[in-house]
Task: structure prediction
Amino acid sequence: MIKKEMIAMLLAGGQGSRLGVLTSKVAKPAVAFGGKYRIIDFPLSNCINSGVDTVGVLTQYQPLRLNTHIGIGIPWDLDRNIGGVTVLPPYEKSSNSEWYTGTANAIYQNMDYMESMNPEYVLILSGDHIYKMDYEVMLDFHKSNHAEVTIAVMPVPLDEASRFGIMIADENRRITEFEEKPENPRSNLASMGIYIFNWKTLKDSLITMAEQPALDFGKHVIPYCHEKGSPLYAYEFTGYWKDVGTLSSYWEANMELIDIVPEFNLYEEYWKIYTKSEILPPQYISDSSMVEKSILGEGTDVYGEIYNSVIGCGVTIGKNTIVRDSIIMNQTRIGENCLVEKAIIAENVVIGNQVRLGMGDEAENDTAPHIYNSGMVTIGEKSIIPDGINVGKNTVIFGETFPEDYTEARLASGKSLIKVGDEQ
Amino acid sequence: MRAIGIILAGGNNHRMKELSRKRAICAMPIAGSYRSIDFTLSNMSNSHIQKVAVFTQYNAKSLNEHLSSSKWWDFGRKQGGLYVFTPAVTADNSNWYRGTADAIYQNLSFLKNSHEPYVVIASGDGVYKLDFNKVLEYHIEKKADITVVCREMEPEIAVERFGTIRMDEERRIKEFEEKPLQARTNTISCGIYVIRRRQLIEMIEKCAEEDRYDFVRDILIRYKDIKGIYGYKIKNYWRNIASADDYFRTNMDFLKPEVRDYFFRQYPDIYSKVDDLPPAKYNVGAHIKNSLISSGCIVNGTVENSIIFKKSYIGNNCFIRNSIILNDVYIGDNTHIENCIVESRDTIRANSYFVGEGGIKIVVERNDRYVI
Result:
């Protein structure tokens, strides 16, 4: 009979609506990050590097890109005879078919999968954080404390603590109380959404709580385990951990990679981050180019100038084009004589010649100021921008656009031009 | 595809100078991210040849590492697969491969146990793209016994190091001279052959009986008047690596946009082992002109007209021009490198000066590296 000590369940079904058009067509875990990676590469690589070789990936929102990326798990060595990676979408049942209504509900609906792996422990992960973590060390902590549930926490500045689920632990790290987004936090240990459960504890609580609508770990399952008297422990993590839930935090996390010695170092020999590499050739930098303080993916051709930017694979930057403080994802083409300032440009975008992005004064975005801010230009995947267009700050463009979509070849600061997908 | 593949990857020659100390020619890194055998392997895979044997002998460590998994070229299949054959001592044989024909003879069971009617034999040191199906079609149409892929070389290329070919108007090979002192034609053999499997087995067994070991000399040249040996001309890019200078020039060809477009952007792709390296990084002070930079590199200095292979580090104020830096090289600050090939895994101390004068200099520096 199959016996796995610890299996991981990776929650990758969320939309991540605060990433705006970047997640209009793809689930947040499949969004590109750091030139050649996707966000889900980080938890998947952590799993294999920690010796966790059985991972269930729960998908729901726009799973196509995610499914193609994961495949049978070859890039992460998760193509296994026993275990490996399994994509788990919601499915129809003879009675009571439903979508995944909450984080714990999604896990509950995959009880059979977990049962089939016969685990001792179940690791719950979310697919939207950038970090390197050895889950085996966390498991050792879990075992040595005879915990039933261990919650990974990290210290955050006290004035930011009210944005998180806060754990209050005694001197032995046993959790005594917790508060969800408290106004006056009594501790600075924020939950990272990473849990290790004893399989029995998890199974019992999910079955008991099954009827709870939108069953959620933080809101329902953890409180239930606590009330029942299960020993809950807080495992403190002090390494780099970044939530990339908003466009500005996404932009910042990318930009941190280009520091001389970045806090989050991808160049370390051990703890490699794996990803599916479709493009192999080296990058070409032409006679007329300048590249400084930037990282570039494979197969990118540069004929212009790039400063302070993160560029993906297979990108073309035309002659006399200047790119500054921007993120450009795989296979995007930018024409000649363009100026790109503080833009996030998604995959397969085509930008014509003489296009200027991020020009003019700041103005609040007219449709979704909580998403499009910080002076950024955001361009969704497969968008097309014709020659000679001027685009202001806090703007968003998504879809194939034509000269007649712009007034006097301009998209003023704060304006949105969304021609496909759901309006944000 | 109705053929199996054989890749002859055992060779070595002294004209590669210091570069061959470390690896077989087929494992020579090419164009930043590839090794020379990737081209033949990818061509076979893209031609839907499912079963491929690689014969290796000389210094095969690097090559074996590269071939440690067959999945990169899509050979990880139940039907067929990638087989690596090194010489082995058996009850009836205690020799190394004494030549290309002997290598095939020693692995004759591979041919005998296959059922595909044809065999494509190719050397593993060519840089090219070729659909072997087209060669096979031609082979069948000509009712040839052996088809030899050949190419008319540009006048500036000295063809004396190749096998030169003269054909009649039917494209039947009339003359075949191996490495002639003075070539009378500039059509050369690319070292790629198509032959019926049973025919090959018969010829190889005959060769072995007569103690002959070389495929070109003892089969192609010896049989050219009694068997129908035809030439299949290719026109596209084709180079092989037989000397350090060839190696340098072939790599530098990839700085030309048309060569990059042909290999990197046009279907089908060339595959290689994936190394999972982070994106290349350019720090303040990086100054790159007309160069190829591979993943995992960190650049702090000036690089002009050069090819930097994977995972190399170039220090502050370095000046690198017209050079090839192989993978995992560490170059200390203020170093000047011009007209050089720097061997892989070298560590070059700060303030070094290497210039190839009147030719390409091969730099092999084995200093201690202190990794921070």
Q: What stands out?
A: The longest strand of chain A covers residues 189-198. The mean pLDDT of chain A is 94. The longest helix of chain A spans residues 217-227. Helices of chain A lie at 41-49, 64-70, 103-108, 111-117, 135-144, 199-208, 217-227, 247-255.
